[in-house]
Here is the input.
Amino acid sequence: MFSKIAIIGASVIGIALVPASADATPPTGVTGTILYQVTIGHKDYILREITIQPGGSTGWHYHDGTLYAVVKAGTLTHDDADCTTVDTYQKGDAFIEPSGANHVHIGRNIGTTPIVLDVLYVDPAGSPLSEDAPDPGCKL
Here is the structure.
């Protein structure tokens, strides 16, 4: 009897500690197509083409692995969660997004034409392409 109560209590506490889905900032105006995927050892290598429509954004997020990206079209505005670091990448520019929850960021299309990115994800095998993060309070 005690063990059942302990399990139920632990479950309730665990649910209470999980962030509410309202904290997440989902992407808007973003589509992606996986062009190639392979797992070697304990790493997934995923090549994906991402399109962000004008006014769209990736939502605040981070990655479990490292991303290598090239801008094929448009201009990407890339904001970090420190609310001061803003990078702009134009057609032909390449950039790297490091891994980990301490690298929360958002990609935005504040222009008038779609952004097209080719992105190589180098992730721990089986991990998601990105992890949602709450808005850090930046005034975008």
